[in-house]
Amino acid sequence: MPTFAAYDGTELAFELFGEGPPVVCLPGGPMQDCAYLGELGGLSAHRRLVMADPRGTGGSAVPEDPGTYRCDRLVDDVEALREHLGLDRLDLLAHSAGTNLAMLYAERHPDRIERLALITPSPYAVGVEITADVRRQTARLRAAEPWFPEAFAALERIVSGDGGADAFLAVAPFWYGRWDEAAREHRAAEDAHRNREAAGRYGDGAFTPEVTRAALARLTCPVLVLAGEVDLNSPPPAVAALAAVFPRAELVVQPGAGHFPWLDDAERFTGTTGAFLNRPAG
Fold it and tell me: C-alpha 220: how far from its chain's center?
């Protein structure tokens, strides 16, 4: 696994898949390594994927200063990777909580981004609130599923502030377009790839939404904002509000997809995302 030194000397790792111009990929979690992304449903057939493990996860070393797990401080790790790859400008793809890092990177280094792809994004960096009613409305799209009654009851406990670990386990089917064996295996593997201490520090004082919104409103590069139609984590109304922040955003809602759209319909996901990444950026 290739490595490079971050600004503070922490050794960070990444994996490479595919051929062609590189796309730097940032995982979610937060603070989860890239294993759960796989090759993004075959996106590696369209571009060379540079899968970055955040500090303290996967093949990357644990830093001496745990304060460097904060999202705004991780921006320097992305910049160090760009420099290591010898790229003047980069195509940046991020998933879920990792999109907050991608947006902070775009805020600080707008001239270094060629294209930005935000996949089922978290909108917290720009202050978009996801209300309990929006989550309920999104969840009700799955009312015909056999697991729905138990999962929806757990969701009600969570949004009322009374949900424990068992409730979060029970809502897992809402994160996938199909709650099949592959989805169950994907969910079961997640916890082993997340640094919980780092996740607890990720958002602690890291965000200034008004400042970030103003900066992203001036971003000149094209932006793909991709939502899953039935994604409870990042419901389409919230994702649309996020897309509206950017002057050159293309909002795509993938039919039938949950939080991991490359698992739900790999062909549709790679077709949409690959076409965006290979389109002229000017």
Answer: 21
